[in-house]
Each structure stands twice: as C-alpha cells, then as structure tokens.
Amino acid sequence: MFKAIKGSRFNVQVGNKAFKDYKDGIFPTILRNSIDLIQASKRILTNSTVIALVLSTCCGINAFVGLRAFSTKYINTQFDVPVSQASMLAGIIIIPCAIFGNITGGIIVKKLKLQKRGMAIMAVMLTAAALVAIPFFFFAGCEQNPKAGLTVPYSINNDTVGWTLPDLQSTCNEDCMCPPAYRPVCGSDGITYTSPCHAGCSSETSDHNNTMVSYNHYHPCKTLQET
In terms of CB atoms within 10 Å, which of 27, 143, 157, 178 comes out highest? Predict the structure, then answer.
C-alpha cells in the first residue's frame, strides 16, 4: 500500500486549461517541469535566430565530417597514395587549415571591431567564396595510369576476348588469395596494380630516404619483371 501524499492543493493555468494537484510531492514537480519544458521549447522553436544558427552549425559540421571522412579516400585513389600516408596527409591539410581559419577570423573581427551585422555579412561572404572554390577540387589529381583488372585487362593474358571488367583475378595471382585492400603499385610496364599481391609479387624492400614518404620495391613479380 502506498502512503498518500499530503499537502494543500493548488491551481496551474496553462492557456484555457487548469491543472489541479498537490502543492508538495513528485507529481506537482513533474507537472511543473513538463510545463516549463513545453514553454521553453516553444520559445526556442519560435526564435528564428536560434533556428538559423542551429541549422548553420549542423550544415557546417556535416560538411566537415564529410570532408574528413572522404578526403583520405580521395587522396588514396586520385594520387595513388597508400591509405596510411593518405590519412596522414589529410590530417596535415585539414587540421592546420581549420586552426588557421578560426584564428584569422577572430583577428579580423577584433581588428575591424565587427558587430553582429558585420560578422554575419563576413560569414555569408566567406561561405559563398568557399562554395565557389569547392568545385575546383574536382579538377585536382594526377593523370591516371591504366589499372590492371579495373580499366585494362592483365597484360599477362594475351587472350582478352570475353573479358569483363572489373576482374582482379589473373593467372599470376589466382593462388595468392589477395585481400581486397587497395595498395596501388606502379609497374615498369606503365600499369598500376591494385596491390603487390595482385601483381604477383612475393618480396618487398623499403627505402625511406629520411622523408615522410617511403618507397617500397616489390620483386619478383609474375606479371612483369620489376615494379
């Protein structure tokens, strides 16, 4: 049996509806908090400035997340850079640029003593400039070499009749059980192979040369004499 909660009654008027409950206890607290939540939500949802700011922030975060997620893949495929080095390059490019942009924006606002209207105009102008500049990134890249099994058949197979691309299997790697990871290697025949395994290579040597980028040499490779 639950013990009744004692206390004086009180009236709460919300619009045309009146609510009655005990002054003390859990139920009045829940009721008051629910009413406060509804009123606060109404004030926020009817504030056009807050809604515009929230939408702007969501769009900005969405753009940054998309850039960070796919920039590594873009560098990996367009410049034939290994995934590990592509991630490092993406971080070197994105993070310092974000820091530089925030610091520069703060300096401009402070030096020009911009108020709310001025900061809004500056944000709109910079966003418009970014939208105009973004399409030019689609033209950034290197000349794409033919890729064995993706754009051209494997040269080791002289009979290319009936070939269906993409097809990464060839007589040089059919027994290797190659993983699907994209680790492009350039062959001396001018063809790019999806990975050393797909090129039929069995040994690897590295040459760092005290630089951030290391060069790997693979040999011997069944599809060609040297990579």
Answer: 178
Q: HEC states along the chain?
A: CCCCCCCCEEEEEECCEEEEEECCCHHHHHHHHHHHHHHHHHHHHCCHHHHHHHHHHHHHHHHHHHHHHHHHHHHHHHCCCCHHHHHHHHHHHHHHHHHHHHHHHHHHHHHHCCCHHHHHHHHHHHHHHHHHHHHHHHHCCCCCCCEECCCECCCCCCCCCCCCCCCCCCCCCCCCCCCCCCCCEECCCCCEECCCCCCCEEEEEEECCCCCCCEEEEEEECCCCCC
Give the total number of structural domains in the chain: 3
Question: Does any domain span residue 110?
Answer: yes
What are the pLDDT digits (tens) for 38-81?
A: 999 999 899 988 898 888 888 888 877 877 778 888 887 777 77
Q: What is the pTM of this model?
A: 0.50
Whether residue 81 is contained in a domain is answered as yes
pLDDT digits (tens, 9 = 90+) for 10-32: 455 545 555 554 455 677 778 88
- Is 206 found in the same domain as 159? yes
